[in-house]
């Protein structure tokens, strides 16, 4: 049963302009992609989650059926919903999407700070190089 | 047409008390399984509309259909399938809570005892208490238990949370709606009237705002939050004059600009962005803010 499945990590922001069911679905996807939710782990039952988030249970059910149709979760009659064992085909795409959202934030920031596009790209390359350098330095330290 | 029969269909409803017109040409449609909000200020015509639905008032004009039936013709068939909680609940004061519920259950074909017990526990109600000694909040709780246990296809709630303290309100509205919808979700329909919209933010699928008996706006809640937005921009200097007629409301405070928009968000955002603001943000309005914006414009 999924009575004890964690549910406090899910949040709804009505001011985001994104439908509540999509917010829920995206949070489950993000948790799956980051490993916070492991394959086979249960999702909260619809009613307690609906009450916790003060949502209509139709909204939660819609999020779950969306996730089910995408193969991210599985629902077993009488047992509840679980993260699918095999959802790897979507993982890369979701990871990219999550990253794209972060990049978008940085692009908006760059715009406000009046950093032109080319300079922004150069900066990204610099950051990648700098982090790579740091990683190597760490490895060298370990070898010593 | 294979769309399901609406649980509620109102067409050009009108009702006049003497010379005062309470509802004027109101039309709406509630599909089965939805949670539908009827939003309006006090005196907007919400209760009159509900009473026309329930055949407690005869509309002077227009059509009312519940499950495709005329409640004036097929009163028993309709009432068998719905439950109504009025804004003022009254019970026989000498009966205990237990007797009150047994009495109300005797009118019903079906009564879910397990659900009754569950709600008793959640609300911590004492079945031996006399109805006359209940607080207003407890009376409403008993009325809601009585409405939910027959598991009707339609639940009509008239201002269910007004007059209750905020803690009780928060506690029970999602409990009650959750308990009602559990089971046969697809056919459990709710029509709720309220002016306390914030409490129903996540529960409402679709709503109609009425004002002075007239429908002002009908939208899906998600669409409404997508269309009604607040845009804030801050500039290095006071912004130049620009065409903002698309906005519902414009507020200027020095270098800052705040717009309330309905659907024209992307276009206005583009125009503001062209002026290179220092900061630019958007957020959706809540249903309550949409209600205020719709009534002001």
Strand arrangement in the largest pleated sheet of chain B: 5-6-7-3-8-9
Number of strands of chain A: 2
Approximately what portion of the residues of chain B adopt beta-strand conformation? 25-35%
Question: Mean of the pLDDT scores of chain B?
Answer: 90
Distance between the termini of chain A: 51 Å
Structural shape of chain A: extended
- Rounded to the nearest angstrom, the radius of gyration of chain A is 20 Å
Widest sheet: strand ordering of chain A: 1-2
Q: What is the tally of helical segments of chain B?
A: 9
Helix content of chain B: 25-40%
Q: Averaged pLDDT of chain A, please?
A: 84
Task: List the secondary-structure elements of chain A in sequence, H or E.
Answer: HHHEEHH
Which class of secondary structure composition applies to the elements of chain A?
Answer: mainly alpha
Q: Tell me the number of helical segments of chain A per DSSP (H or I, 4 or more residues long).
A: 5
- Output the helix-strand order of chain B: EEEHEHEHHHEHEEEHEEEHEH
Biggest interface pair, counts: A-B, 21 and 30 residues
What's the layout of helices and strands?
The complex is a heterodimer of chains A (144) and B (297).
Chain A: H1 20-34, H2 46-53, H3 57-69, E1 73-76, E2 80-83, H4 88-112, H5 117-143
Antiparallel strand pairs in A: 1-2
Chain B: E1 8-17, E2 20-30, E3 35-39, H1 46-53, E4 61-66, H2 75-79, E5 82-85, H3 97-105, H4 113-123, H5 136-148, E6 154-158, H6 166-181, E7 189-194, E8 206-211, E9 214-220, H7 221-227, E10 228-234, E11 249-253, E12 256-262, H8 265-273, E13 279-284, H9 287-296
Parallel strand pairs in B: 3-7, 3-8, 5-6, 6-7
Antiparallel strand pairs in B: 1-2, 1-4, 8-9, 10-12, 10-13, 11-12
């Amino acid at each position: 049963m999924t009575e004890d499945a964690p549910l406090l990590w899910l949040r709804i922001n009505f001011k985001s302009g994104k439908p509540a069911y999509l917010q829920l679905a995206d949070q489950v996807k993000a948790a799956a992609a980051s490993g916070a939710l492991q394959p086979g782990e249960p999702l909260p039952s619809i009613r307690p989650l609906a009450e916790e988030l003060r949502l209509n249970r139709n909204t939660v059910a819609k999020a779950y059926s969306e996730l089910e149709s995408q193969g991210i979760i599985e629902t077993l009659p009488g047992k509840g919903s679980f993260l699918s064992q095999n959802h790897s085909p979507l993982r890369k795409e979701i990871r990219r999407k999550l990253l794209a959202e972060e990049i978008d934030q940085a692009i908006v920031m760059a715009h406000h700070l009046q950093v032109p596009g080319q300079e922004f790209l150069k900066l990204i390359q610099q950051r990648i190089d700098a982090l790579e350098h740091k990683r190597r330095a760490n490895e060298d330290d370990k070898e010593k | 047409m294979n769309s399901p029969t609406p649980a509620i269909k109102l067409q050009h409803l009108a009702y006049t008390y003497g010379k005062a017109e309470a509802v004027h040409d109101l039309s709406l449609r509630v599909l089965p399984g939805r949670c539908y909000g009827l939003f309006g200020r006090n005196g907007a015509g919400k209760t009159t509309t509900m009473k026309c639905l329930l055949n407690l008032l005869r509309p002077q004009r227009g059509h009312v259909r519940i499950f495709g039936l005329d409640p004036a013709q097929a009163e028993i068939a309709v009432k068998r399938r719905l439950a109504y909680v009025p804004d003022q609940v009254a019970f026989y004061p000498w009966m205990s809570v237990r007797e009150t519920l047994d009495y109300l259950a005797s009118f019903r074909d079906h009564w879910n005892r397990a659900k009754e017990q569950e709600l008793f526990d959640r609300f911590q109600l004492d079945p031996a208490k006399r109805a006359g000694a209940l607080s207003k909040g407890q009376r409403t709780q008993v009325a809601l238990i009585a409405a939910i246990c027959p598991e009707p296809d339609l639940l009509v709630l008239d201002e269910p949370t007004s007059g209750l303290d905020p803690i009780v309100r928060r506690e029970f509205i999602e409990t009650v709606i959750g308990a009602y919808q559990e089971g046969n979700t697809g056919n459990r329909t709710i029509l709720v009237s309220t002016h306390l919209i914030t409490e129903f933010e996540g529960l409402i699928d679709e709503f109609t705002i009425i004002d002075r008996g007239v429908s002002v706006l009908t939208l899906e809640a998600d669409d409404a939050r997508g269309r009604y937005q607040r845009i804030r921009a801050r500039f290095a200097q006071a912004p130049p004059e620009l065409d903002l007629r698309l906005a519902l409301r414009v507020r200027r405070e020095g270098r800052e600009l705040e717009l309330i928009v309905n659907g024209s968000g992307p276009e206005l955002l583009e125009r503001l962005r062209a002026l290179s603001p220092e900061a630019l943000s958007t957020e959706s309005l809540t249903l309550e803010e949409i209600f205020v914006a719709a009534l002001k414009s």
